[in-house]
Design goal:
The protein is α+β, with helices and mostly antiparallel strands. The protein has 2 domains: about 1-60; about 90-249, Trefoil (Trefoil (Acidic Fibroblast Growth Factor, subunit A)). The chain has 1 helix and 12 strands. The chain has one helix spanning about 5-60, and strands spanning about 90-95, 100-105, 115-120, 130-135, 150, 165, 180, 195-200, 205-210, 220-230, 230-240, 245-249. The strands form 4 sheets. It has a 6-stranded antiparallel beta sheet with strand order 2-3-11-10-9-8, with no helix packed on it. A two-stranded antiparallel sheet has the order 1-12. It has a two-stranded antiparallel sheet with strand order 4-5. A hairpin with a 2-residue loop joins β8 and β9. The longest helix is centred in the N-terminal third of the chain and has 56 residues, at about 5-60. The model is unreliable at about 55-65 (pLDDT under 50).
């Protein structure tokens, strides 16, 4: 039997090496292709999922819209009933022992009319009843932070009305005092000083002069407090609010 030559053996060996190299290349190519496919699949899934996650987080982070047409809370009297337009109420202080309800008084012997809004000296006196007229007269409920007229339900010897208004600045007293003689209704720049608001204040209420019946007008915006002059407790604009409640007549 003839032995294979050296060249033949080398040729066979080279063939085997070539075959092995080709198989290794094929395996590596297939593996790389599979990895690329998996990578592409992951990339594709990420491309599809990422925008969805962004939208989801944007939705979660976005606050829900607030109904801009929601009405302010109604003002309640001491019995827990809603204040009604045209009904009569006493405005009473929360703090006892520092005067009673609200009434009318002249400013001085030289100025008796129009009458100013003052507090009763004695805490057991309820004062004079008032009525409230919101800027929208069709609304039967008196609501917080809403422009309204306040009117004493009483007859006086003065020719002026008993509708509250902010008086001109009193240079002698250095105060913006509340007086009467205002106009009921007719919201606008000419009646700016006739409008007040009732706002919540530490569980009770306070009166505020901050009219919003004229969009282009610039005016004062302050709380209503008590200014004591000659023993008379007068209502005036103040940095210390007059804390009040309402009692139905």
């Amino acid at each position: 039997m003839t032995k294979p030559s050296t060249k033949t053996r080398e040729s066979d060996l080279n063939s085997v090496k070539f075959s092995v190299r080709e198989k290794i290349r094929g395996y590596l190519h297939a593996t790389t292709k599979d990895k690329n496919k998996k990578y592409n699949d992951i990339t594709m899934r990420s491309t599809l999922v990422l925008p969805s996650l962004i939208l989801l987080f944007a939705f979660i982070a976005t606050p829900l819209p607030v109904n801009g047409n929601a009405s302010p809370d109604p003002v309640l009297d001491i019995a827990g009933k809603q204040l009604r337009t045209g009904s009569k109420y006493y405005i009473l202080p929360v703090t006892k022992g520092r005067g009673g309800g609200l009434t009318l008084a002249g400013r001085s012997n030289n100025k008796t009319c129009p009458l100013d809004v003052v507090q009763e000296q004695h805490s057991f006196k309820n004062g004079l009843p008032v009525t409230f007229s919101p800027v929208n007269p069709k609304k039967g409920v008196v609501r917080e932070s809403t422009d309204l007229n306040i009117k004493f339900d009483a007859a006086t010897s003065c020719a002026q009305s008993t509708v509250w208004k902010l008086d001109n600045f009193d240079a002698v007293l250095g105060q913006w005092l509340l007086t009467t003689g205002g106009v009921e209704g007719n919201p606008g720049p000419r009646t700016m000083r006739n409008w007040f608001k009732i706002e919540k204040f530490f569980g009770d209420y306070k009166l505020v002069y901050c009219p919003s019946v004229c969009n282009f007008c610039r005016g004062l915006c302050r709380d209503v407090g008590i200014f004591i002059n000659g023993g008379v407790r007068r209502l005036a604009l103040s940095d210390v609010p007059f804390k009040i409640v309402f009692k139905k007549v």
